[in-house]
Amino acid sequence: MPNILVFIEQRENRIKPASLEALSKATELLRTSGGTLSAVLIGAKEIREQADILGNYGASVVHVFADPQLETYSANTYARLIAETATSAGAEAVFFSATAMGKDLAPRVAVRLQAGIASDCIALELDEKKAIAKRFVYSGKLISTIELTSAIKVVSLRPNSFSIVETKTTRHETKLHDYKPEPFDLKTIVKEIRSLPGKLDVTEADIVVAGGRGMQSEAHFKLIEDLASVLGGAAGASRAVVDLGWRGHSEQIGQTGKVISPKLYIACGISGAIQHLAGIASSKTIVAINKDKDAPIFQVADYGLVGDALEIIPEFIAEMTRVNAEN
Amino acid sequence: MNLAVCLTQVPDTAARLKISTDSQTIDSEGISFVLNPYDEYALEEALQVKGSVLGARVTVFCVGDDSFQPTIRKAFAMGADDAVLIENQTYESFDVANALANVIRAQFNGLPDIIFLGKESIATNDAQVGAMLGELLQMPAVCVVTSFKLEGSLAKLEREIEGGSELLEIELPLILTAQKGLNLPRQPNMKGMMLAKKKQILKQTADMSAAGKTHNTKLELPPKKAPGKIL
Ligand SMILES: Cc1cc2nc3c(=O)[nH]c(=O)nc-3n(C[C@H](O)[C@H](O)[C@H](O)COP(=O)(O)OP(=O)(O)OC[C@H]3O[C@@H](n4cnc5c(N)ncnc54)[C@H](O)[C@@H]3O)c2cc1C
Ligand SMILES: Cc1cc2nc3c(=O)[nH]c(=O)nc-3n(C[C@H](O)[C@H](O)[C@H](O)COP(=O)(O)OP(=O)(O)OC[C@H]3O[C@@H](n4cnc5c(N)ncnc54)[C@H](O)[C@@H]3O)c2cc1C
Question: Locate the Electron transfer flavoprotein alpha/beta-subunit N-terminal domain: which residues (chain A) (predicted)?
């Protein structure tokens, strides 16, 4: 039965939850068939200490490349190490999470392994012969079923679409590997990471609160930020308000912005244009606040509130603040 | 300096899509195709580099068929110098990347200085061709680029990640895939449109013996949501 290798992403020596989703899905697929599940972890020296965590999610072998030269991301280096590990581990499938890093690596690894590839999958089945994956195409308007029939298959899984499951068996083996740089590795080393301070990204948040032109001014986005903050979520925006310069592009949700799949999405003063819906199709629950009862956003909303967002949001914030205080 | 730009076309985003009877493709009847929005940023960036480097030429590459003519004419009208239409029928990222790699290498008798692509096709949402091309041509490839500056032969790039960006410095040659925010694409003007009509499109076919291994077997509509509660 297929052996699976899962790439584990870390930033600043912390493993990304999305990688645990990919590992949990691989564990589930191997439960009945009994192939070997390996994980590969690449980073600075300190990353070694994180290897044991992976046993709790089903990895039976953890391959670790821990070297000061691997502290900053390099697409060429990481792709080479993952492909080489896949080959030496006899992996028939390599899993990534479809994060910025996973999406950058998966196609490179697929070329190196002469593998078929399916990106940003929302469902996945795997047997000895093939992998069958489902993914959104045409910006969320349609779902495509993809079949991979190559000897090795590469897939990336959409973050927040698969659950993290802890397993009881924690027996695993850690294999430390040396890193020897090759000339092509060095060409893509990241020099510096510039982060937006203290900001939770809309693609990584469980709850996203977004505002549109219906918020009526840049200043009113304080309400969006406050609601996001009491809910422990991230603030987002429609393209209309990004184009107006009210919010930065990193917050834009939709076809030419970010695709999100939070547990809860709250759209405030957003009409629900098709290009906006492209970014929210895989949200678990959608709440819309809009004063126009015929706004298209209500067609995809699980809960709709018809009314003035500028009045409803403050009430919502007050209610949540009260609930938070009680707990 | 040789600048290559890879362009594809996609159904107009407002188009109502109908699935064909084979349930594997969309019915293109009555759908207008437009230049993929991210590819417009790629082309614009190439044109801006051309504007700042004496003697630079912009060559457009498309893997497609005759239906790509209007897309290529638009690229000419914006300012592209040459265009190569690679007439291979394929829907797969690897095949597209492989065809592009072979024809680009032949066209420049080696590697161009920079290859520009979009970060993804908004039809397939694959986001694969740029990184694959990097592997096939053994060129450094930086994906999802929001800022690009050239200082002699050194490129300074910024690429978007969750909650921030990564900064890179790379000696040419290199590949980049464009993200929104990189620039504001120009509108073709009258003169450009007139010139575009006269330009020749070079036609090629690529050797496709190394075929990809991904098949789209079915297209379907997402499951309908139960109507929500209006409060
Ligand atoms: C190629 C292309 C790509 C695009 N990509 C994206 C994308 O990635 N993301 C995106 O979002 N858009 C995108 N768009 C733009 C999209 O078509 C819409 O124009 C945009 O989403 C509209 O933003 P909006 O809903 O904020 O504004 P509007 O459409 O103006 O809607 C404002 C809404 O607010 C409501 N409202 C007004 N006042 C109040 C109030 N006081 N309380 C409550 N509700 C109120 C109104 O009823 C209305 O429904 C794209 C368009 C194109 C052509
Ligand atoms: C379901 C489905 C239906 C399709 N229907 C059609 C159709 O009706 N007609 C048709 O012609 N094609 C069709 N295609 C092919 C499609 O348009 C792409 O060319 C092909 O899928 C490869 O691109 P990608 O999705 O891997 O691109 P991505 O990896 O998402 O694209 C990244 C970048 O690569 C470059 N690029 C992508 N494709 C090309 C290309 N063909 N030529 C030059 N540069 C390119 C662009 O710069 C693009 O921004 C279809 C594909 C699928 C999956």
Answer: 4-188
- Give the chain B residue nearest A187 (alpha carbons): B140
Residues contacting A63, CB < 8 A, separation 6+: A38, A39, A40, A41, A85, A89, A175, A177
- Whether A223 and A274 map to the same domain: the answer is yes
> Does one domain contain both A263 and A310?
yes
| pTM for this model (two decimals) | 0.91
pLDDT band at A229 (very low <50, low <70, confident <90, very high): very high
User: Per-residue confidence at A170, pLDDT binned at 50, 70, 90?
Assistant: low
From ligand 1's centre to the CA of A212, what distance in Å?
Answer: 6
Domain that holds residue A220: 207-326
pLDDT at B207 over 90: no
Whether residue A198 is contained in a domain is answered as no
Residue B138 has its nearest CB partner, among A184, A196, A249, at A184
Q: How many beta-carbon pairs under 8 angstroms link A with B?
A: 196
Residues A218, A177, single domain; the answer is no
Is A47 within any annotated ligand binding site?
A: no
Residues A127 and A246 in one domain: no
Centre of ligand 2 from the C-alpha of residue B134, in Å: 17
Do A167 and A71 lie in a common domain? yes
Ligand sitting nearest the alpha carbon of A255: 1
pLDDT tier at A227, thresholds 50, 70, 90: very high
Do the Cβ atoms of B8 and B125 come closer than 8 Å? no
The CATH code of the domain that includes A275 is 3.40.50.1220
Q: Specify the pLDDT at position A140.
A: 87
What ipTM did this prediction achieve? 0.93
A270 annotated to a ligand binding site: yes
Segments of B133-221 assigned E as strands:
141-151, 154-161, 164-171, 174-178, 201-204, 214-220
CATH of the domain at A30: 3.40.50.620
Q: Could you identify the atom of ligand 2 that is nearest to the CA of residue B67?
A: 11
**Which chain A residue has the Cα nearest residue B18?**
A142
The reply to whether A230 falls in a domain is yes
| Residues whose CB is less than 8 angstroms from the CB of residue A113 and which lie 6 or more positions away in sequence, other chains included | A83, A86, A87, A94, A152, A154
